[in-house]
Structure of Tyr recombinase domain-containing protein:
Amino acid sequence: MPRHAEPPRLYLRRDGKQSVWIIRDGGKDKRTGCTEGERQGAEIRLAEYLAQKHASKPSKGGKSDSISIAEVLRVYVMEHAPSVGRPKLIADHIEGLAPFWAHRMVASIKGKTCRDFADSRTTPSMARHELETLRAAVNYFHKEYGLDPVPAFTMPEKHRARERWLTRDEAAALLWQARRTPHVARFILIGLYTGTRSGAILGLSWLPSVKTGWLDLEQGIMHRSGSGQRQSNKRQPPAAIPERLLAHMRRWKRLDKNIRHVINWNGSSVLSVKKAFRNARQNAKLSNDVIPHSLRHTAATWLMQSGVEPWQAAGFLGMTVEVLERVYGHHHPNFQKAASTAIAARRA
């Protein structure tokens, strides 16, 4: 049985005295022009490559039945992606959209095709996020060049946010199974102690940076994003590093010496820990719904269970108080306490 071909992906390759990002597509490699420290630029090049690979002959504006979805995605990536805060997310979404949509015209976007696409994806949530990117691309194309008519999207129903969090015993088991993969152990500890998003953890540097987040070990501050990075809707504010984590980080820095990346594999930056995280989860005998983002859920839940004031916890995690209280508020010891006390005081 032939092996399933891997989609185009970024790969770090040594080039003389420095490492550079290339795009590997089957047996072909394409240069991005980005060095190891320019990962965000490499992610933009990947998104451009994916969009161009499926694009038809360029056109600008016109009837929806004469403009390909691949062309709409190409324009969106080339013109808009460089200005967004999370270019890799666009690349990931295009990878999911292209097999179903790339050969179709914009006019084919209808309720039935949206539902068929959603059925072809792993989860409704995944389909919804990818369709949101396609809708954004269509709206951008219409705004800049005109579409007649602009299609209406039928989106999968929004599901309740997944809130899987780890108990202390589960977290300890996960860490124990990651002990032989230090980059994964570091990732887990930072996620548990700070609730930082996966992408921001992977981008952390030991040195000040305008392109990525970095750690100020003298002041005990984690800068989740670089000073020159565009801020997206996913908040990444600085956070005070907890003392126990700070002690770990200072030890890691001594071990790393001249290595730049906090999460590194043999000195090189790491794009994803999904596979290694999955191995640690399986070895720890945890359920399949434990994913890297569960570490953020865990940090938020533990803060609420400890009785931390919501505005303090929200600022530390980088989310709004409204989201914190809606998703995690029931874990707080004072949750609805005044209401339950008041109603209990009334005699039947």
The first strand starts at residue 9 and ends at 15.
